[in-house]
Amino acid sequence: MKRLLLLTLLLTLSALPATAQTPTAKEYLESSRARMQRGEFLAAIADLDKALELKPDFVHAYYQRAGARMLSRDIDGALADVNKVLELDQNFKPAYQTRALLRFRKGDLDGALADYDKSVALGWLMYESYIGRGNVKRAKGDLEGAIEDYGAAIALKPRATEAYMNRANARRQKGDAAGAIENYNTAIENGAPDPSSIVPRSGADTGGVAVVSPRGADGKQAREVSTTRTELLALPGAVIRSDGATTEIDSPARAKMGAAMALSNRGAELWRQGNQEGAIEDYTKSIEIYPTAVAYGNRSAALLRKGETEAALADANKAIELAPTAAVYYFQRASVLIKQGQTDEARKDLAHCLELDPGMKRLVDSALANLKEPPADRQP
User: Fold this and answer.
1) Can you give the residue ranges of every domain in the chain?
2) Rounded (5°) CA angle 97-103-107
């Protein structure tokens, strides 16, 4: 009888619906990592919020949330989380590199440099630390220091693309056109899917000195781009490997992106030196490998100078599609529209350009002043 009663009880209990278990803080952390892999950064943040409700001193959750906030463009929130990490654990090595990047993004160059120095001293992800510190030094005008750090990164990863490209950018800024071209070539060879299809360049292609200095639509030299850890993390297919303390970037698109950027920047150097055809060719190859707004915008400016307004307009439209909040591309499109006589549309773009970036007021005012109204007796 007792056995029958026990069997009945067990069967009854097994038939009851299972009680849902509340996930643990660690499970929320793991869930957030999976969401970040899929690019679901806001959902990842929500998971990490729950993890921190359950475990308010969970260092790894604060650090992971900093990464998710950074990738969702919440720089202030990310910085607050990283500061909290270091408040809880001053020996949490990866936080210094991440805070350096965030401080750099906010324009705190001295703070960023101090954090990168700490990261290098700790021996943490040395390649990334040297690249980041080189970027900060370059922004501070220490070109020799930047070139030295990029060289240290190259010594660690000789087949990397961004280290060569960033060193080329610094050499270009220093006035070493031949050295810049040489480094762009190496970056392209290391990262392009088919390097043999790309025309190699040398210092001779620039003549060594600037004879003409074509400028983009914004009145500046053709635009240049550098890789950052944030951009690489956001690459399609990027794998964010984590031991709960840090992230390492591994992406099939990483090398291609670096090669494309190197081509775009090499084109900008050729453009600066007056080699318009070479510049257009490099911009085109860059777009084929990994399309960026910078390459489309620069090619648009080069095509406009050649008088190919339809192609220039198409490129300006594509640049805006890829970077809809970048004022310079609306200015570029306005320049094309002005050349085509579409003054009303040009005015709209100039007005929007000013809304996005009030700092371009002088250029916008100059463009507006040069717009000529059609004679009163001319029919529309």
Assistant:
1) 24-92, 175-232+252-287, 291-374
2) 140
